Amino acid sequence: xxxxxxxxxxxxxxxxxxxxxxxxxxxxxxxxxxxxxxxxxxxxxxxxxxxxxxxxxxxxxxxxxxxxxxxxxxxxxxxxxxxxxxxxxxxxxxxxxxxxxxxxxxxxxxxxxxxxxxxxxxxxxxxxxxxxxxxxxxxxxxxxxxxxxxxxxxxxxxxxxxxxxxxxxxxxxxxxxxxxxx
Length: 182
Ligand code: ADP
Prior knowledge:
Bound molecules: adenosine-5'-diphosphate
Oligomer: single chain
CATH topology: Leucine Aminopeptidase, subunit E, domain 1
Number of domains: 1
Domain Macro: 1-182
Organism: Pseudodesulfovibrio indicus
Shape: globular
Strand content: 15-25%
Helix content: 40-55%
Number of strands: 7
InterPro entries: Macro_dom (IPR002589), Macro_dom-like (IPR043472)
Protein name: O-acetyl-ADP-ribose deacetylase (Regulator of RNase III)
Pfam families: Macro (PF01661)
C-alpha cells in the first residue's frame, strides 16, 4: 500500500510498513534525548541495526553533546539495516499543546531533512514521530509532518521523502492528510 506525490524537483511517498525494512539512504528514528533506545520504532530500529553497535555509536554521541534536545537530529551508520544511515531525532512529548509542541515537531522533520542534505542522502524514510508513546494527536502531527516534508523536498534537500505508517488505519489517515496538503 503506497501513494506517491510529485513535489517540485522530488517526490513524497506515503506507505504502510516496517521502516526497518526499507532500502533507502537513511531512515529516521524517533529517539529519546538520551539516545538510549527503548520501545516502539526506536526499539525496532535498534534490534534491526544490531543493538550493540548502534548503542555504542549513540553513547559516543551522548558523551560529546550531553543530550539531544527535542527538535534536533544526529546521524549514525545504519549497521545491519538495509539503510546506510540512521538519523536520530527527538520529537516533543505532547503536554496539551501549549509547550511549543508544534514548533518542536516541525523542527524534528526540518532538521532531519537538513542533516540528510549535508550528507548527500537522497532518499529517506520517516516514522510518525511523537505519534506513539509521546502522545501527539495524529491528525495534527500529520499536517505538520507533511507540510515540513513538502517544504524540504521543494527546496531540494532530498529527492524522495517516504512517510512510513505502521498499520492500515494510520496509513489511511496519513493518506487522507496527504491528499489535502500535497
Ligand atoms: P514516539 O516516542 O516519538 O511517540 P513511538 O516509537 O512510540 O515514538 O511511535 C512512533 C510511531 O512509530 C507510532 O505511530 C508507531 O506506530 C510507529 N512505529 C512503531 N514501530 C514501527 C516500525 N517498525 N516502522 C514504522 N513505524 C513504526
